[in-house]
Amino acid sequence: MTQVKFDSSALKQFVHDNELGEMQAMVKAADDELRNGTGAGAAYRDWLHLPSEYDKDEFERIKKAAKKIQSDSDILVVIGIGGSYLGAQMAIDFLHNTFYQAQSAADRKYPLVIFAGNSLSSTYIHDLLELIGDKDFSVNVVSKSGTTTEPSIAFRIFKKKLIEKYGLEEANKRIYATTDKAKGALKTEADANGYESFVIPDGVGGRYSVLCPVGLLPIAASGADIDQLMAGAAQAEQDYVDSDLSKNEAYQYAAYRNILYRKGYETELLENYEPNMRMFAEWWKQLAGESEGKDQKGIYPSSANFTTDLHSLGQYIQEGRRFLMETVVKLDKPNFDVEIPSEEDNLDGLGYLEGKTMDFANTKAYEAVVAAHTAGGVPVMTVHIPEENEYTLGYLIYFFEVAMGISGYLNGINPFNQPGVEAYKTNMFGLLGKPGYEEVGKKLRAEMEKNN
Ligand SMILES: O=P(O)(O)OC[C@H]1O[C@H](O)[C@H](O)[C@@H](O)[C@@H]1O
Which EC class, in a word (predicted)? Predict the structure, then answer.
């Protein structure tokens, strides 16, 4: 059964009936590029079949490693940046109690999974070291290239703590490395020290890697069911193969956002009505931004959390400059609903809501917002999900991944590279004094002095 329902009914005043049909030929061509590898970046399409063609032996090894971590660690520190942490963190937030970090170990039942190496903040690392204190912990270091600066620095620090606490031999048994099968500094180190290693397949880029060991090990260690996650994604893999727009809602989403983009709606807000889906938007932003923002074009991916941000960004969305489109991921049925209590005095005037639930109010807020923003000139699309569980999440991940592949080709770019992220890295290496980058550093310092 489909787990995602794409609703474009609020677009009527923005997109004429014929416009979607006019996209069909282009969607067919984009589908051909994606499925048959005739488009740019063809070597990075292996995520397309990850849900059905993953390495089953490795999958079992992931589950075993997760069990070991659960049995010997209070905390799992997952070190990675970009695609090497966003998917795991969004999944863990989506699948667990909102306050699971604050729960006691007994209530949580599973290790706390904490992410590091996704910034260069010393405060963050200091505070995490303090949180770990004397607790038992393990480290999952994740890097496809095996050379990214932020996670490399964090890894040195947590490796040192592991060695101090457990000694070298036991420390090596508490380090799990997820990286390339053959190249990169992390692979070299993992081989030299005998870390248990998991492979990021060649044809899977960072932002498409949540359904490989990158996401699966931390998600499994957190106690979530990765079989169900993969089963949901595999269902979506089957459901989204038709290049006929009328039969493929992921492709409809890709087509509509491109129709809107070409009319000047250049920024897309991914929205939720559930605080535990904030990280989902962060994951989606990398997926969309790195896939599409290149060659001086592309939809700018942003996000908003409702109803919270209706009291901050809401004014701008309703009446500010008109370049926004919105995509809501709407949970149709929360796992737990809470009734609004009755009060005799009704001093707060909420009597009219007595006996109704929080989710009733949340859904009415969503309906009200769609109507208001539509009237205000903001096109709104909705991706409905039935509930929050592993199966639905796997399905939803695949929905957005396949939509982004098609969307990129519709806009005439390579959706699978990210050449632009190197520019700051080169400068940073120059300024940090990395061997080989001396000239860059010299030039930058001279420019900075001139500007001061
Ligand atoms: O996994 P890594 O090689 O460490 O890369 C981590 C991230 O950083 C890079 O700069 C890329 O732009 C991202 O696509 C990638 O997910």
Answer: isomerase
